[in-house]
Amino acid transporter transmembrane domain-containing protein
Amino acid sequence: MSDMEKKTAEAITPAPQRNSTSSSDGVKAGTNEEAFEVFKRDGTGVDFRTVGWIQASVIFLKLIFATGVLTIPSAMYVLGAFPGAINVLGWQALNTYCAIIQGNFRNSHAGCHSIADMAEHVGGAWCREVVGILFLVTFAIVGASGIFGASVALNALSSHAICTNYFMLVATIMVFILASVRKFEKISWLTWGGFISVYVAVFIVVVGVTQRDRPAAAPQTGDYEFGYHVIGHPSFVAAITSVASIFCSGAGTSAFLPVISEMKRPRDYNKAVYLCMGIVTASYLTFSLVVYAYCGKWVASPSLGSAGGTIKKVAYGVGIFGLLVSACLYVHVAAKYLFVRILRHSDHLQKNTFVHWATWFGCNFAMCVVCFLLASGIPIFNYLLALAGSLTFAPLALGFPGYLWIYDHQHYRKGGVLKATAYWLNWLMILLAVFLTIGGTYGVIQQVIDAYANGEIDKAFSCADNSNSS
């Protein structure tokens, strides 16, 4: 058989699937486990599959935790403490559910490295391209939020010594260097330090706000409006933007998928997800409620600036490494998708060749450039995250996982009451994603237009500081 005939035969051969009759290790009897993995362990190239489940959980924590916790307190001011808390619990529960769906689908269908591969499996080549572009746009936006957060930290530490855009450029260069670390196993050591960095920084602010008689940004003499509400009364535009921000704070679950392909035991994925999302949900809820309770309407965005100038510098000094590592991870997962997509059927994928390294560095550089341009064009932290939550994360991390579940559970529609209920609830989740996409995107765009009109944002690529805008 000629090489062309072999490739054609491989292309039309159905991918092996794991199912409920699998053996104890999750692999169907007689199925070649290597067929499920993008990175092979054949001893001839670089071994990418070196990540343990605890390491994976810390990577997931760092992907989710840093930027989300910095914006939820100001979202609570808009919604009120009670609706804000319900949103945190509800969205994190849904995000956890969607993360498990994606991991189970990946571990049941061969060759899925990213959510775009899953899209090809359920919808063909055109679906892969649409979802792949959506994935890249998503992590370009959240990568921009990480770069913007790091630039705010540099501004705070230097007392605005130079133009904000120069700090964004400095942050982008640092992110490029960190993101260019090739394997998740190596990045996982950065994520330990990054997670501890941001967690301690947020804890410092939480303690700091409780030690003040008045919020740092409030008038320090005379009467003032505190702005704490158990239930807020926002406009639709303000409410949907805040809801999208809270949803976005835990919606980066599609970034978990490339990590599975580098895990020693992909079947340990669910344990890593539950540990990660349990810590994230508890931290988001407690930290955000305390900061909002003590700052009210005077909460800063990002929230590390909520306890006054001195605490702000201390918090950003401690947390800047974590902000950089977050942006590094966002860029890395997007670049890894491009890298695998370009070299997947090439010998260069797992060999230390010039083409391998040039492609890897090129993918990272391209993503960093796009992130820098976005951070400079929409320089308000909340709006960046809300835009990601509505325009891209809603279909990618909420709607599409619902369809993946439906694809694998078509028989539930005609099952018993519980199975039929689960089936239609997943369709309801898809409708919720459509609503959040349309309504949230409209709300964010309107708020960005209003911010430019009233001078809250000076202009794109300006040197104005928008770090305290909420």
Q: What stands out?
A: The two ends are 64 Å apart (CA to CA).
